[in-house]
Amino acid sequence: MSTVVEQIVQARLILSAQRSALLRVTLRYGSEDPLAVRMLFPTEYSLDSETEGDEITWVFARHLLAEGLDAPAGLGDVHLRPTLGRRVMVELRAAEGLALLQFAAADLRRFLWHSYVAVPEGTETDHLDPDRALAELLGNA
Predict the structure, then answer these.
(1) pTM for the whole thing?
(2) How far apart are alpha carbons 10 and 48 in whole angstroms?
C-alpha cells in the first residue's frame, strides 16, 4: 500500500535584491518513491514558455532536504542552505535559468518529519519495487 505525504507551504521567490513574490508550493513524498521528495510549483512561475499543465515538479533526494536544513547541501540542480531567521534557501538550476526560493525552516522540518513517519529513515529500500522501477525505465509502466 502506498502512503503519500503532502503539505502546502508558502515560499518567497526572490526576483531581485528589492523584489520577491509569494507563492504556494506543494511538498509531496510517497512511499512508492521512498528516496525522493517533490516540490510542485504553479506553471505561471516557469521560465519555460512551453510549460503546460497545472504545475512544475522538481524531484530531489529526501536526504538532501534533511541535510540542507542544517548546513549547505547539494551538488547538481538543487542546492539548499539554512539562513539566519529560521529560513532555508532553495536554489533550483535549469537550462532556462535559476530560481531562488526562501522557505520557513519549520515548514520543511514538519514535512520531513511526516515523511519519516510514513517511511522511517534507513528503511527506504524496504519500500522499493525493483520490477516497477525496471518497467518504468523501459517505458512499460
Answers:
(1) 0.82
(2) 22
